[in-house]
């Protein structure tokens, strides 16, 4: 079951990307997830992660707020059950807090995501 601070490897393009689950499943049966991508010049540098912030992160990476998604919890669970999505270690509380704070400061966070977070 997807849960707050949980992380999941999800196939995305030619690689698996680490997604952070930002909340426990809500009353609508949904979870907010946001992925981590490799850092590059010009990306959203609101929240950078590096080696030591999570076992999967091996180099400078950023939280890709522009690609945050509200997903049905049942779809996440189905993907996990089928082996298509692979749960990883939970985020530490301090790193997770930085990720959540970034939603409110990133210029790339969609309004629908902010509304979901603030309800």
Could you characterize the architecture of this molecule?
There is one protein chain. The protein is α+β, with helices and mostly antiparallel strands and 119 residues long. It has a single domain (7-118), classed as SH3 type barrels (Roll). Helices cover 25% and strands 29% of the residues. It contains 3 helices and 7 strands. It has helices at 73-81, 93-105, 111-118; strands at 7-12, 15-21, 30-38, 48-49, 61-63, 69-72, 86-88. Strands 1, 2, 3, 4, 5, 6 and 7 form a 7-stranded antiparallel beta sheet that branches. The longest helix is centred in the last third of the chain and has 13 residues, at 93-105. The chain is globular and about 35 Å long. The mean pLDDT is 95.
Layout of secondary structure:
Layout: E1 7-12, E2 15-21, E3 30-38, E4 48-49, E5 61-63, E6 69-72, H1 73-81, E7 86-88, H2 93-105, H3 111-118
Antiparallel strand pairs: 1-2, 1-7, 2-3, 3-5, 3-6, 4-5
Could you list some keywords that capture this structure?
119 residues; SH3 type barrels; single chain; seven-stranded antiparallel beta sheet; 7 strands
């Amino acid at each position: 079951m997807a849960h707050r601070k949980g992380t999941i490897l999800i196939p995305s393009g030619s690689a698996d990307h680490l997604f952070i689950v930002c909340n426990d499943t809500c009353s609508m049966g949904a979870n907010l997830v946001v992925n981590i991508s490799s850092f590059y010049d010009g990306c959203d540098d609101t929240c950078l992660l590096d080696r030591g912030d999570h076992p999967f992160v091996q180099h400078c990476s950023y939280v890709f707020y522009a690609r945050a998604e509200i997903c049905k919890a049942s779809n996440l669970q189905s993907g996990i059950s089928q082996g298509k999505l692979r749960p990883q270690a939970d985020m530490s509380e301090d790193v997770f807090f930085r990720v959540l704070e970034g939603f409110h400061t990133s210029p790339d966070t969609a309004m629908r995501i902010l509304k979901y977070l603030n309800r």
